[in-house]
Write a structure and sequence with these properties.
This protein has 356 residues and is of the alpha/beta class. It is built from eight helices and twelve strands.
Length: 356
Amino acid sequence: MLRRGGPPPRRFDEYYRCYPVAMMPGPDREDANHGGKVFLPASALDKLTRLHITYPMLFELVNGAKERTTHAGVLEFIAEEGKIYLPHWLMQTLLLEPGDLLQVKSTDLPLGSFIKLQPQDSSFLEISDPKAVLENAFRNFSCLTKGDIFTFAYNDSVYSIAVLEVKPDDPQKHAVCTLETDLSVDFAPPIGYEEPSRTGTSTPSSATGKSGSKLSPGHIQPHGTMAQAINYAAIAPSSDTAATGARATLSNFVSQGHRLTAKKGAAGKAPTPKPSTLVQGASTNPSRPSTFRRENGPQPLRLPPSKLFFGYEVKPVKGKEDGGDESTAKFQGQGQSLRKKKAGESGSASGTSTPR
């Protein structure tokens, strides 16, 4: 006897023996093993067609023995009769072993608008563009269930992602459809991730002195421990000892000169000829003056790593106010003529008349 209001809607509800995708005959399907879709037998497609269940075909997977439930889509109807092949992460979520009995029911899920994910390892942060990677990974998913930990493969690595939150959140199913919808994604910090600790060192402000008072622009701090540690007094450009040492040590001609012509008093003396034959044990190279150790003058500034020194003297540029008196004439000499003036020209030029 039928109830008032018509018969209840018919629903696809079958039991299958479950196996992982890795045990499926045929070529390896690595992408299917990291997706959210299952393989059903051809008889399931025939029954779904007779029940007028159209795209997208979503299913509720129930492990009654362990009271575990999740949701998935279907990829192909090529499994053997009585069998269903699931990705490995779905087998783990439902606590299934190969050959266990699994209940498969058709269902409807709302279109998702928001999900919150949490990577299960901090290596997920090494992905340069996680948005594009997830968009490509979601092509293998039809729905997501709150509490599931799904996997996807990228760049020869497998990443695990937990679903922390879905919207809209159905109080019974806690799942959303991810097909043909605008889905906003938020991320929680990965498991094991620690914020980088900040060092306790702080850079002193350049605008305040030791007493806290503000310094005027151009003020030069007195030499402190840093200048003493590097012996700034000996390497400063204005040091007298440094300038003297530089002239003494940087001279390119430290040997005595040789005259090409003989002196007047030594005209009758002939130079002593040197033997042209080789003497055993003697060197033919000319003797060079012995080098001496540099003890004063500008020394190279060698500092340990990650240490800077800004202690050199500052010489401000002279402005117009300090440039001197510009009103003085720059050319004060008198002009000179290349030819001599005639007497008549000089008289006319002076404006005087000569009496006859």
